[in-house]
Amino acid sequence: MTLFRFCLVMAAAASVLVGCLPDPGPFYPRPDDSTVAPDSPPTTDGPNVTPDTNNPLPDTNNPLPDGPGNGDTTVDMGSAAPTWTQVFNQVISPNCSCHMNGGTSGGLNMDDANAAYTNLVGVNARGAGPCSGQTRVVASDSSSSVLYNKLDGGGGLCGNQMPRNAPKLAQNLIDMVRDWIDAGAQQ
Fold first, then answer.
1. Domain limits of the chain?
2. From CA 152, how far away is CA 112, in angstroms rounded?
3. How far is the CA of 167 from the CAs of 88, 92, 163, 177, in angstroms?
């Protein structure tokens, strides 16, 4: 959404909010403390001034037509990358039991968040398997990270898809790991 469109949407929203204000009654005060009957013509700089018909703001009673870029009143403010705590608590801890509680399958211990981070980020996989020597998590590069490829099961997969002997993780969890890695894999 362009800044101009965002401003138009905000102006339209403000005019709707003004329409929700309580009725001021038969008379309302002017800035100079005089009163005006509600059926008096609108004025801006004095008597007999007509409203500006060249106003670029849209008529709030006639919204923009739907179409590419129109009718969309949402504003994408961007989304923050997932944190390591979120990744560990929502993905690693509930799904990687072979690497927890003393289990070190593939030489990888992820008993807690600190151990998991220390043994994943910038560390090569160990053992004689097909992943040996490849980096488990390459900060800012999920496609080169063994962790992401094992969860995703895509073209960069070495060895078995994880979690082993279990259904593939939900896509939103795999995306969370990808987004965390691509944002720099910060602790």
1. 1-78, 84-182
2. 23
3. 19, 15, 7, 17
